[in-house]
Amino acid sequence: MQVKQAGDHQVLVEYDGIELDLRLNFRVHALRRTLQDHPIDGVIETAPGFRSVMVTFDPARLPRPRLLDELVERERSTPDTDSLVLSSRIVTLPIAFDDEMTREAVARYRITTRNDAPNVTDGDNIDYIVRCNGFVNREEFFQRFAETTWWNAFIGYFPGLPSLFSLDPLTQISVPKYNPARMWTAEGAVGIGGPCVVLYPVEAPGSYQLFGRTLPLVGRNFGSRPAHRGTHSETIDAATDFNLFRIGDRIGFERVTEKELLALRLSVFEGTYTYRIESGEFVVAEYLDRVERLAPRAAAVAAERRRAAASVRVP
Fold first, then answer.
1. In whole angstroms, what is the distance from residue 81 CA to residue 148 CA?
2. Which residues of 46-81 are buried (b: 16+ CB within 10 A; e: fewer)?
3. CA 312/CA 118 separation, integer angstroms
4. Residue 226 CB burial class (10 angstroms; 0-12, 13-18, ≥19)
5. In terms of Cα–Cα distance, which of 230, 278, 276 is closest to 95?
6. Is residue 96 over pLDDT 90?
7. Euclidean distance between CA atoms 281 and 276, whole angstroms
């Protein structure tokens, strides 16, 4: 753990190097939980990233040297990573692949920004994702994506925007971002940049490659209704009603047609749709055991992905 100055009222707690390792994110969530269970007087807010936590404090109440001592003490009292059991809901969302609104975003980009970009020459981003990852066709990509459970590592950039990473060692989808960025993305769009999948909560600029659309993610009073399946359903806390997601959620997707998605979206706006949310726990040791068991196959997948990516132009 390193603690860096980040302004007059913040410090940044960082773990290890810059490699993509979900164990670092599990550590972030564990430290944040420790800070919630054993708060430090004078700490105002904690904001997690992938491998970091931004800690905002009141220096009039909490001198920086004491904050550093308290953070080190909290870190030392946090359980080892491989023994962590994290609170983790399961959120299931519908997704329509290759929908009209994501194609519209690509069309606008081609007209107004860069019509020769290799990721938009097919009129969408999907075939580019397929080529970058060595999939046989787009159906293979769609199936692999929908079969995977995704871990919500952090929320940011836009309010309510989740950053999702694969919990399946055999799902190693990755793709370069737009260059330059798009000026418009539809609300509800689903995209990928590098290995990170995002769901756009609002209409916004963006640089992730788009391939589908889902339901509204913010501003729906998500806590007003319980989940409608499972014996351990829960409502969202009133404090987080505005956003669908929490950090540490596990996200699953069910494929629907675009017509079906539009009907579901309409029911959301009419107030009759119930979002599918189940409470649960994530046992880190079980995840690490699966990663170890699948390591040889995962290495083969990674090698194939690298070969495919080497033959594709970067935007």
1. 23
2. bbbbbbbbbbebeeeebeeeebeebbeebbeebeee
3. 8
4. middle
5. 276
6. yes
7. 16
Q: Which two tokens stand for residue 10?
A: 């913040």
Are the CB atoms for 21 and 169 separated by under 8 Å?
no
- Distance CA(148)–CA(274), nearest Å, equals 22
Cβ-proximal residues to 31 (8 Å cutoff; 6+ apart), any chain = 13, 53, 74, 75, 78
* Nearest by Cα to 39 from 49, 47, 31: 31
Amino acid symbol at 64? R
DSSP secondary structure of 126-176:
HHHHHHHHT-SSHHHHHHHHHH--EEEEEE-SSTT-EEEEES-TT----BP
Residue-wise burial string across 164-189, b where 16 or more C-beta atoms lie within 10 A, e elsewhere: bbbbebebbbbbbbbeeebeebbbbb
| pLDDT (tens digit per residue) in 192-234 | 999 999 999 999 999 999 999 999 999 876 643 443 333 333 3
Amino acid in the structure at residue 299: A
* Burial classification of residue 37, based on how many CB atoms lie within 10 Å of its CB (0-12 exposed, 13-18 middle, 19 or more buried): exposed
Tell me the per-residue pLDDT of 145-159, one tens digit each, with 9 for 90 and over.
999 999 999 998 888
Judged by phi (left if over 0) then psi (alpha if -120 to 50, else beta), residue 221 lies in left
Residues 6+ apart with CB under 8 A from 86: 26, 29, 30, 33, 248, 281, 282, 284
DSSP-based three-state secondary structure for 217: coil
**Cα–Cα nearest to 99, from 125, 130, 71:** 125
Residue 3 has pLDDT above 70, yes or no: yes
Tell me the C-alpha distance between 135 and 5, whole Å. 44
Q: CB of 134 within 8 A of CB of 304? A: yes
Q: How many C-beta atoms lie closer than 10 Å to residue 106's C-beta? A: 22
